[in-house]
Amino acid sequence: MFHVKQDEYFKILYKLALKSYKNNEIPVSAIIIYKDKIIGKGYNDRQNKHNILGHAEIKAILNASKKIKDWRLNECILISTLKPCDLCNEVIKASRIKEVYYILNQPNTNYSNKKYKLIDNSSFYIEKYKEIFNNFFSKLR
Fold first, then answer.
1. Is 127 assigned a catalytic role?
2. Is the pLDDT of residue 55 over 90?
């Protein structure tokens, strides 16, 4: 698990999600951790970049792969603010990420995966993240 720097990770995830939120993107962010160090970060920018691959998890995976100069991330952990969608799930599988943790569940995912774990925590940053996520969808209604 990633208990060592948990609050630091949640703070970074919140700040990344806030970037998406401020750009009218679905506020999702992700980080990749290797040996307690963040080696990849990403946040949604699909609408603004007009790129179907602008998902937080995919961007974090690409950044991490570039950093370690290998597409295999089998010793890495991914933490996302939202349970990865089906597209991201396939990229996560292909990159061989060891474990995936997420803050909010996404009901419309059509897969089950034993290495995915819902974060059961109520830290300050998780609560702030839930707030911007809910605000984003409230504005759409």
1. no
2. yes
